[in-house]
Specification:
By secondary structure, this protein is of the alpha/beta class. The protein folds into two domains: about 5-35; about 50-195, Glutaredoxin (3-Layer(aba) Sandwich), CATH 3.40.30. The protein has helices spanning about 5-35, 45, 95-110, 125-135, 150-155, 180-195, and strands spanning about 50-60, 65, 80-85, 115-125, 140-145, 165, 170-175. A seven-stranded mixed sheet has the order 1-7-6-3-4-5-2. Strand 4, helix 4 and strand 5 form a beta-alpha-beta unit. Helix 3 (about 95-110) crosses helix 6 (about 180-195). The chain is elongated and about 85 Å long. The chain starts with 5 loop residues before the first helix and ends with a helix.
Length: about 200
């Protein structure tokens, strides 16, 4: 039998080298692109620091009032990510520390801080005292009053969870304890803001 033509042998060797390259290097390149260039592909439930609210619930505005007793406008939670702190009683030491943390979290986001707003929900019986005290040192947080039936109907309010993240369409996304490490909340927000096309 005669030997194979040189061109066929050369082409066969070339395809073998290409196959080896694809087998070993393409998965590495693909994994690098996913993790470095597009980290949003990772299942958020496996990498977040707060508790996901599943399914996402619409944040209830019914039975909430502004500090001058008017119904809260429906557009309050539209267009921005909102850090909501829920306080069933008067806003004293623990509450003040928690809303201070939300302020620090917002400032830590740098240029993206304008995409974040903060809201304090407090029992209606305590709203005026809360406003008088809180807004002396934190004028950047909005305060609304919750009637008792709001707390009864807000099924998302969990034991140990006082800070809630609401997306720019008004849906609850995550919850955090008031003692949660701010760095975890910052990390979650940075990822969400990076992949979000709204807010």
């Amino acid at each position: 039998m005669g030997s194979r033509p040189p061109d066929i042998t050369r082409n066969r060797g070339r395809w073998i080298l290409i196959g080896i390259f694809l087998l070993f290097f393409v998965p590495v390149i693909f994994a690098w692109l996913l993790n470095v260039e597009s980290p949003a592909w990772l299942p958020f439930a496996e990498t977040n620091h707060g508790d996901l609210i599943r399914p996402p619930l619409s944040f209830p505005l019914t039975n909430l009032r502004t500090t001058d007793a008017r119904p809260v406008p429906t557009e309050l939670l539209q267009g921005k990510w909102t850090l909501v702190y829920v306080e069933r009683s008067d806003c004293v030491a623990d509450c003040e520390r928690a809303i201070y943390r939300t302020r620090q979290v917002r400032h830590a986001l740098g240029k993206d801080m304008q995409r974040i707003q903060r809201l304090l929900v407090v029992a209606s019986a305590n709203v005026q005292a809360t406003v008088n005290r809180v807004q002396k040192y934190d004028a950047g947080i909005s305060v609304v009053a919750a009637e008792p039936r709001w707390f009864e109907s807000a099924s998302f309010v969990r034991s140990g969870a006082d800070i809630y993240l609401v997306d720019p369409q008004g849906y609850l996304v995550m919850s955090y304890a008031k003692t949660a490490d701010p760095s975890g909340l910052i990390s979650d927000l940075e990822r969400l803001l990076k992949i979000s096309k709204i807010g």
